[in-house]
Amino acid sequence: MINYNKLYCFFTLMLATLTFGVQAQHLRLQALENNPTLIEARQATHNITARNNQVCSIDTLSLPFFDDFSAEYSIYPNCALWQDNHAFVNFDMASNPPSIGVATLDGLSHDGSPYNVYASVSVGSPADTLSSQHLDMSGKSISDQVYLSFYYQKQGLSDRPEERDSLILEFKDSSDVWNLVWSVPGVADSLSTLAVPVFQQHYILVDSGAYFYKGFQFRFRNLASISGNNDHWHLDYIYIDENRSNNADTSNSNYGRYSDVAFTHRPKTPLKNSYTAMPWKHFNSNDSWNDSLVIENFNHNDLSGVATLDRLYEVEESAPNSNLLLSEAIPAVASYLPSPNSDDKGGHRLNNTFSTSFVPTEKTTLKSTYTILAPTGFQNNPIFFDNDTICTYTELDNYFAYDDGTAETRVIAQGLGTKVAVEFVAEVKDTLQGIYFHLPYFTNRDAQLDFINVKVWLDSLTGQEAFSRDLYRLQYVDGFNGFFFVELLDFSGQKVLIHLEPGQKFYVGWQQSFGPEVPVGFDRSTDARAKTFVGTGSTWDTMSLVGSVMIRPLLWGDSSFTLIPIQNVEVTKPQLLLYPNPVGSKVQFQLSHPDPLQSYHLRIVDAFGRLVYMDDYVQVLSTVNYPAGIYFVSLLDAKGQLMEQLKFLKQ
Description:
By secondary structure, the chain is mainly β. The radius of gyration is 27 Å and the shape is flat. The two termini are 25 Å apart.
């Protein structure tokens, strides 16, 4: 029988961890076990039929084939181009990509859960696949110089693949056989954990007549630890066409030659202090706007000085109303050089002012957009147009936030008594009602064993604590967006309201208590280091990790506040049937509504609780050697969770 306590300890010890700088003994980054974004979407239609209300054709495609995963319509690959949905399309997990958006391969299945929670973490196993739709290569030959090019990155802002892990590229020939044409191992053990590998570009010449037929396909696969959200590879800018050359063999092989200029990062928040969200009551049109921005592009051309790069920055109210609040032309770059160069990332102080008539009176959503204007000087092919526009949404609600809502990893306060505090400033008189903690789900973890001391400080971290409550129990719930609200209650269960004055600093955080260390979501694509502090004893230091601890204070002057909506996911679970019953020499099983990408296991114990069978699900099982009596059958999913339980009588 499976010992889940031992299994939990095993994962705690073996999940990939990163330690940084002088805080190594106090803070630790730890890989996620699943993907909360995909778990919310686990009911998404499996690839080829429809995705986000888009019906996809599976007709054979003509060249060119291009995808840089920059279109904002799905967290899965575009089914008009790709046959499977194992990869996770995102804007957050890669570091400095060649264009906004990447496809990430990891150790998770399409629904965001591990392929096999029991799999060894020390062995690279087959994991995700990214397979192209069929391509028409008939009539082509080696002389047509058909090249496939792509960018790849190991690790990025998430978990590092080890040397035993691999990224693999395969071509399918006219005999329907997949052939290995390229592979690369994970990160060398000798590379410092502080170093993040950069994107590399690779070119593959289609050099065999066996590939020039109608129906050719290529696919990427990875070998990874398939017990969790491990061993990340990021793919971008996948392009196959004829009449190309191997432009990677140049003096600067970090960039290729394409008629394209791409945005590489989303706009930063338009709010000051790097807030990604703030209470609308605290918003002041004269004081809450950020007066500068950072804009980042990548020029894939080898041409310079022949075109002007014109860009636009706009901020609008997108809900509940639609109003343009700012339109700012970014100073043109008249002689824009190929990447990488100093023009690719630049700061800009706004010349125009935001609309002073904007005074929110209810929950409001802001939309910030970067646009490349009239980019024909650099590009004229529509396949490159998607990365010319990119946007970010900012919420004015009832809470403050520095994070963007997506956890690339999680952070742990190591050691009994270690404290973490995040600073905010009240702009108006208000009341702190409670704190959101982003808690990435952890398989086989008993929430009743997890304790932290929730704390609030006013004005400074060296003064008296405004609130301290030991032994808060936090929850890890499968199927919601990861934010758990902690109401401020004293030991008698009475609500504690913390009143704030205009301009007053306050800090919310926690102290690690006894028992298992509590992991909290950590957003590595935003940066709140200057507002985050780590304390041991009476000493406080500014956090050295790049990112934002996902903790959000909720402020509201009365009891009518609302919480961030919980996004429950209803999943149709398979039902286990067995027959005949009573059983003779064999028992037969049948699953209704099985998930085709899920693996199941059977566990059978006798009336005394003794394990008689534990293995993969089978439809027929011999019971010849089972003594007469009552037996209990459990159906388990890949994570070891109980799906169904039945009993039968052996005659």
